[in-house]
Specification:
about 290 residues, mainly alpha, elongated, cell membrane
Length: about 290
């Protein structure tokens, strides 16, 4: 495909993914209030806790347009999450034509794992919030109350959900790169120190300040990284068996240097052309020979 064809293909894939998100977002607007209640549930309400204890907060809305803005944010977030199977498939469908025919058969398996991994990350983020928010509220001074806006709470929820969802896609990306022949399993295994440190730093940045939140993201993503590395090593071994033995960079190939007999020399028939004044040939050899 030419560059223009690739750009046209990318445009079509993006259009389908955005359209799927838009359709799900419109449907989610009819259930936005219920979804909003589900997302704000991790915040301990002062109606159930002792006021002024520092372990609860009052949920408020600020501004005239804030409720509508929050309504749209919740719907758009729901559309992004629930439409993930569609846009993940479009992403893979754009990359798949660059693979060989025997590598395309993994497309369905990769796409089938992509959406569950993303949704698992979102679920882990939702599971984490009720345990992380009370830890953050414990820093409240004595006899002081907390006022948390719905917009701020949803921003934290959406940020964590998207960060966890895409972090859980790391093994999928690595497996895709291995299937495409971009990176080998041995190279992925050699990255393990840097990957573990990078995952820990990423988890410390995107999660709240408590160690439990950091470990809740770093530990499963690190485990998924090693699982992806194992899959890549197995795929490289299978590919190596199909291609035959592979030599190292400093290993010489086995060459048969035994001389082979050559055929006996034969006579060459003299060319016959009218008006040829060149040297005469006798018995297949010219006069000089």
């Amino acid at each position: 495909m030419s560059l223009v064809d690739h750009l046209r293909e990318l445009r079509n894939r993006l259009a389908i993914g955005v359209l799927a998100i838009f359709v799900v977002t419109v449907v989610a607007m009819f259930f936005a209030k219920d979804i909003m209640s589900l997302l704000t549930e991790p915040l301990p309400n002062c109606l159930e806790e002792e006021p002024g204890s520092g372990r609860c907060a009052d949920l408020v809305q600020q501004g005239l347009t804030s409720p509508f803005t929050t309504y749209v944010k919740v719907s758009l977030f729901t559309g992004l999450v629930l439409a993930s199977p569609v846009w993940l498939y479009q992403l893979w469908a754009f990359i798949a034509p660059g693979l060989h025919q025997n590598e395309k058969r993994y497309s369905a398996a990769v796409v089938a794992f992509g959406a569950p991994l993303f949704l698992t990350g979102v679920y882990v983020a939702h599971w984490l919030l009720p345990r992380a928010i009370p830890v953050l509220l414990q820093f409240t001074p004595d006899n002081a109350g907390n006022l948390v806006t719905v917009s701020d709470l949803l921003d934290i929820t959406v940020r964590l959900a998207i960060a966890f969802g895409f972090a859980f896609e790391l093994p999928l990306v690595l497996v895709m790169l291995n299937l495409g022949g971009v990176v080998s399993g041995r190279r992925m295994l050699g990255w393990w120190r840097g990957m573990v440190m990078g995952i820990a730093v990423f988890a410390a940045i995107v999660t709240p300040t408590d160690p439990m939140s950091m470990l809740a993201l770093a530990v499963p993503v690190t485990a998924l990284y090693f699982v992806a590395t194992g899959i890549a090593l197995l795929n490289d071994r299978r590919r190596g068996r199909a291609a035959g033995p592979e030599l190292g960079d400093d290993e010489a190939s086995d060459l048969d240097l035994t001389p082979e007999p050559i055929d006996a020399p034969g006579r060459v028939a003299p060319p016959r052309s009218s008006g040829d004044d060149g040297p005469r040939r006798s018995g297949g050899f010219d006069d000089v020979t």
